[in-house]
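Task: complex structure prediction.
Instruction: return structure tokens for all chains below.
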Amino acid sequence: MREWLRWPVLRQLSGSDFLGRGRAARSPSADEPARIENADSVVRSVCPYCAVGCGQRVFVRDGEVTQIEGDPDSPVSRGRLCPKGSASRQLVTSPSRQTKVRYRRPHGTEWEDLDLDTAVDMIADRVLATRDETWEQTDEQGSLLRRAMGIASLGGATLDNEENYLMKKLYTALGAIQVENQARI
Amino acid sequence: MAEAHPVGFQWVMEAKRRGAKVFHVDPRFTRTSAMADQHLALRVGTDIAFLGGLVHYVLERDRYFHDYVVNYTNAPFIVGEQFRDTEDLEGLFSGFDASAGGYKTESWQYEGTEASPSAGRRDQWQKSGQPQEGETSSHGRERASSGPERAGSGGPVYPGSPESDPTLTHPRCVFQVLKRHFARYTPEMVAQVCGISEEAFTEVAEALVTNSGPERTSAFAYSVGWTQHTVGVQYIRTASILQLLLGNIGRPGGGILALRGHASIQGSTDIPTLFNLLPGYIPMPQAHTNEDLQSFAEADGATKGYWGNMRSYLVSLLKAWWGDNATADNDYCFDYLPRLTGDHGTYQTVVDQIEGLVKGYFVIGQNPAVGSSNARQQRLGLANLEWLVVRDFNMIETATFWKDGPEIESGELATEDIGTEVFFLPAAAHTEKEGTFTNTQRMLQWHRKAVEPQGDQRSDLWFYYHLGRRIREKLTGRRPERTAEQRERDRSVLELTWDYPTEGPMAEPSPDAVLREINGTGPDGESLSGYTQLADDGSTRCGCWIYCGVYADGVNQADRRKPGNEQSWVAPEWGWAWPMNRRILYNRASADPDGRPWSERKAYVWWDTEQEQWTGHDVPDFDKKKAPDYEPDPAATGPEAIKGAEPFIMQSDGRGWLYVPAGLVDGPLPAHYEPQESPVSNPVYPNQQRNPARQIFARPENRYQPSGAERGSEVFPYLFTTFRLTEHHTAGGMSRWLSHLSELAPAMFVEVSPELAAERGLRHLDWATLVTARTAIEARVLVTERMQPLRLDGRTLHQIGIPWHWGPNGMTTGDAANELLGVALDPNVHIMETKASTCDIRPGRRPRGVELAPFVAEYRRRAGITELTGTEHADDPSLTGRDERERGNENER
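Output:
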């Protein structure tokens, strides 16, 4: 019942703003200061969803992202963002985002905690072991192969160019050739 | 486009406001259709017939752009006598080898040339004097797997000069070959294949040709609706033929515009996390053909165009990677590059996981457990790994498959039995790191860091830098205990340049330093300003030659942000586009052979006779000082061999290719084949149902369905296509965990027409179950007139639209569309067919738990599905030698 009374059309019909062009159509939050007004800094960014490459302005206060809006200077997007781009503040501030490394041991039934440093160290050991275990120096005819067929990778289309570059460089040096991303999918 | 790339669509609306006509060709009525002048709801999987019909329309009525076609395309070149078209061979091109399921392509060459498919095979050709089929390995036939992708950036080469007939009348010139090949793609045939009216087709055709020519241009915008087919590359080829005939390439307002779906999916193709490529579309070397740097690069060095400088690009890359260790004496460490033997793409990899060959897997910002075709096959692969690293924001399905995946629910797998060790590492978001994305227009934009990541969240740059650092430390420490063989193997890792500066308490490596390495440096250590500076003597270093210039003058050009309204309409000072900040590729084609704009209205780049150089609104995609009347010395190679009137400078003949003598594995011209699974018999080539050269995996977890007139095809009577919503993104990893987006699109659903709803008893908002040979999924029913039944040959065909964003995790959950799809690939690029398949639909929820598998098995039994179903490569037994007994067996089973 309470919700009903806050219905804008009810306010519109019962109040003085019969055409619904003033107070009746305003929500209380419209009177609060905009999140962008008290930002400490505004950082130029690019939308992380599709490949149109819309310009974003990231508003920051006290070390936290408080709002993300379209960049009107961008000749690509002229300040616009779609529903996904407009929701990207939630993408980066969502409480569902994981902040800790999670580890599942072989045949384990639950996640376990693991220190980040230890995790990277363990992964490095796995890579080296699998590399040695599945190394192919030459084929039967003696042609050079120089590769480790036990290691594969998937992903890159959501990452920065610099990140893709380091991935390809490291994998190639290790002899991992089964490196793929969403461009194939 | 209005749905999946809404902000890009504002430019279509700008064009419409200025009088452009907008046609939307899509099986579904969407927001794009609502804004278009006309919507054509064609049958899924029939675009080659539609576009081929447009090609036919242009050729039959002589509506092509004559001067453009004669001077800028290969229309006058003479094809060799040995070539046979689909017209001659009932749907096959010459050279088909049914036992190998592919073509020998030598009969497709021009007269007077010896075509070579790609750098990947060239030395083999030179040794033997003619092409040879590759070895057969566990990864399938070893063929020029990188050839087609290389061709996408440059085109394969052929030594010698083809015979030419500028009158376009020689019966074997490309122009006449095209005319004959497309003769059967009449408006009547288009109507019969695509399910649209002849009138609607003619309206599009007439609008297109009247809006093309010197004064006007037309553009095609497409997305994965064109690429995710067993004939995906040939879809794009058909559009290319059409746009070249109409003179719509290299000119403002023209083009074939790929609308790509991830922030840097273009960048991850240019700097490829892809198996077949090195940065800048240099192919990965093949084991049996690329024995040394010389054999890899020399054939290109002897040819025309900018790929003639490939040795410079490759040597500069090897110098960027192995620094001072790469010398002329050791072939610049060319032997540190691992070698390919066939297809090592992601679908082959998942098979190798199931077979126990692939043991460790990194999944970085991707979600194959619901995001790849035949999702169950993906999870079976994950469940058979030794170790798995997942880096993402949230607990996506790929990270939790062992705990709560569909196979756990169905009892097919038990958590305790799965031996996969899983590391989940939380990733930093785009606001928490800096670097470049390359957008769908090839434009790099630097995004700055706004805040620090929290807890264990790190950038992927951090992860790979520190992983590499640790691996190198371990190898150095273990050196005494390593065997001589192992020490030799470790050199490529230990000699790698890997000394990026780090900053801050997290020791974040500098993306700026990485971008500088990508850009490249000269002998003085200063940033290079463009790829023409690259040398093949080891004096330059460059991590990706097409990105050379992004750090020109020591300035991060990708970080430029001059407001759009303060510069020209080309906006060259916002970001940086490869190559050389050119915004339209091959833009020399915007001028006539003499260098004058085709029309004042469409002036873009032209020859300035006073300054004696190319100039215009954009950076000319041509040697700035090369005059339009320049004629090369017949012995010239590389860029110098390209004439002043040949705009397509990456092609080895400077021309746009209507006909492809080398570089594709499934035909020199596009032909309409039905999808791997279709309820319709191929009306264009009745003797050839499917693409004979498609790539398939006949495996127990990847059964195919009967197609066309094959027995059992009626068990899966409905066509379906997958699609994206405005409110969600790909497999949901970046959208299903957000309350705003989950509220906007809160449930997995399927779109069906009122007619289909009536036929199957489906009710709006109730549940429906969809079934294929792979599995069954459930979804809410959305009954809508946006889906319209097709009338084809007196028969009614229904199409179903299925969004593919859902999975079991997140705020909004549902079954994944990818459960339904099988894995059948385009043979050129190994991309799967997701946009056209068949299924059954029935009211109610799907069986749960152990009841699901028998339910699907019963469908397979009713359809008579065996391991042979859908696996033949050519339909006519006289052509294939396919055993009749085999067909008998198939029917019995």
